[in-house]
Amino acid sequence: PLPDDEKTLYGQFPKTFKWSTASAAYQIEGSWRAHGKGLSIWDKFAHTPLRVSNSDNADIACDSYNKIDKDVEVLKRLKVSHYRFSVSWPRVLPDGTNNHINEAGLNYYHRLLDALEAANIQPQVTLYHWDLPLALQKVGGWENETIVHRFRDYADVLFSRLGSRVKFWITLNEPYIVANLGYGYGTFAPGIVGKQYIAAHNLIKAHAEAWHLYNDKYRATQGGLISITINSDWVEPRSPYKQEDVDAAKRYLQVDRCKHQKSFPLPEFTPEEIKRINGTHDYFGFNHYTTVLSFPVDLGNQGTGTTHDRTWIESGSFWLKITPFGFRKILKFIKDEYGNPPVYVTENGISERGAVDLNDIHRTHYYENYINQALKAHVLDGVDLRGYTAWSLMDNFEWAAGYSERFGLFFVNRSNPTLPRIPKNSASRYASIITCNAHLL
Ligand code: GBH
């Protein structure tokens, strides 16, 4: 018989399983200067020459700011129980502080929540998906410790204004990427180099303060869940017979791997800060896409270099290969390493590039196989998996890759000014998977 990882598991998730799809404000909303919105670091970055492929920007993006009905219509077709979106901080607080609340901006989210409620779709709201108010970057952004309080104040506005209708909050999306690409390599906004550890330090503290605020001031009356979403690839040693590759794989998955990094100063948390940060999570929010192979390197990247196996099927993104086996393994790793927490997969998906083909068999293949591995993690390995989220609802602004890489279940025809959302074949397949709770037919 085939080993577990090569055959399909026939089974189902519990009835309470949360099926979702996701987006992020800067990637879909557009209306970058509408109704009092402030600028974000991505508005500036995308308007800087040579930062984004084809000089794309998200001034219009999918025009979701003006297309609530269209977005909710396609969500209904997917039969999702939940929709994950993010709030644009500078749309709500144009200068980043709560000195001035932009009611028109907040109103957009009220109307979106109304439409979701009418469609019986529950919101999952991310406070920060990378679009920092530019005004805060002018005083150092995530490098400046005062951002911890600015983020807490912003969270306070959202909890008090939207919290009666939102039962699932995500403070930060992928702080590792914010720190490493935004403040380390500088390939994402704000394009700063060599400051990743201080940025990471403040990101973690900001998250913890938002969690405590919710816990102390809002949980009793609002009763939602709040946590952080982190991303990780699974890793295998490039050669399983080389101890140095095996060691590099271990370092890759360990939090303390930055101790192997010698070229930057490492800020440390005080014992009080550690106490304050520990336990600030109601669930384990997790974004996952692919697997890498590890080997040792002397400098940079925490002493681990990564590559891919040339037999792995490619996608539209060079970093993303189709490796469903790694999904089950990393979910099991999370269970073992972190004491079997409730896990919500808050992103998982695949891209294509080039000519449009609505018959996206690579995406259907990806979702069927990854979701089946998640089912195995749940049924066979006992991972406490509570929800799954497909990235993404529709093709959108893919950060430094612009519109050249498309992750959507729906194709957005950018040559038609009405930006219609057109289902790819994978959209109906995802709807069937949801309807039978992952039981493959
Ligand atoms: C997610 O990050 C993001 O949360 C989401 O907004 C995004 O659309 C989605 O990925 C798809 O990319 O080209 O060398 O700069 C997943 C982690 C971080 C993986 C950035 C790709 C870019 C590598 N991603 N990374 S590079």
TrEMBL record:
Active site: E347
Keywords in alphabetical order: Glycosidase, Hydrolase
Keyword Hydrolase: yes
Signal sequence annotation: none
Record bears the keyword Hydrolase: yes
PROSITE patterns: GLYCOSYL_HYDROL_F1_1 (PS00572), GLYCOSYL_HYDROL_F1_2 (PS00653)
GO MF, any single term: lactase activity
GO biological process, one term: carbohydrate metabolic process
Family: Belongs to the glycosyl hydrolase 1 family.
PANTHER family noted in UniProt: GLYCOSYL HYDROLASE, LACTASE_PHLORIZIN HYDROLASE
Protein name: Lactase
Biological source species: Lates calcarifer (Barramundi)
